[in-house]
Amino acid sequence: MLVWLRHTLSTALIAGFVTGMVFLGHAERMSRSSLLCERLVVEFADNYRFVNGDDVKAIILNKYGIYFNSRIDSLRLDEIERQLCSHTAITDCQAWSTDDGNLHVRISQRKPAVRFMDGENGFYADENGYVFPLYQRFTAKTPVISGPLPQDSTWIADAAKMALFMTPIWEDKADSIGVDIHGSLTMRFGTPELFTFGKPEDYVEKFRKVKDYFDIVKSPDKEYTTIDLTYNKQLVCR
Q1: Which pTM was predicted?
Q2: Which residues contact 177 (CB under 8 A, 6 or more apart)?
Q3: DSSP string covering 66-100, please?
Q4: For a 10 Å CB count at each end of the chain, is N or C smaller?
Q5: pLDDT digits (tens, 9 = 90+) for 100-159
Q6: Helices (DSSP H) in 181-223: which residue ranges?
Q7: Tens digit of pLDDT for each residue in 182-193?
């Protein structure tokens, strides 16, 4: 009799617990279904500022629609993410909502590898050669190539890879990088000599030659005006 009673009580307790959980879940869903979006919280995963919080709000309003005072569980988070990622400077976005009525978005921005400038006109390219525009409010610190803006996507991608190679060691040493209409580069490294670099290819070997010039060749007894790096395994000084 006692065993039967214990089983009956246990079953009743379990049934009561399950019923309570179902009731609480239903109440929570009912409460969330009436919860309105009261605020947009924007976070950034990096230190770039091509876009700011106001830009993010404007993109959502213009491309997704009105989110403020909409039911929080009616927001199409995947669509908000897709619309934000359509911006050229944004590479990734995560959107989620919380029970305090907030819509959260976390933005990752494109990392520029190089900036091309022709007077007041120009653009950035990332490490894959993806081109995106300049922004007035923020200028990223990258190597700058000045001259006619390139149109060849392969050349741009090669120049971006070269710029990434330069950044740890050579970026602060190269005080000017120029390009002509044929895509041939020239550089100066804080001294009068002009280094003829050619196309942005074989750049590891070419920068090794630059180092050899300053470490071995350069001398106060002999002044050179141009250093040609384009010859295979040769450093031609004139």
Answers
A1: 0.82
A2: 143, 144, 145, 146, 185, 186, 187
A3: --TTSBGGG--HHHHHHHHHTSTTEEEEEEEE-TT
A4: N
A5: 999 999 999 999 999 999 999 999 999 999 999 999 999 999 999 999 999 999 999 999
A6: 203-212
A7: 999 999 999 999
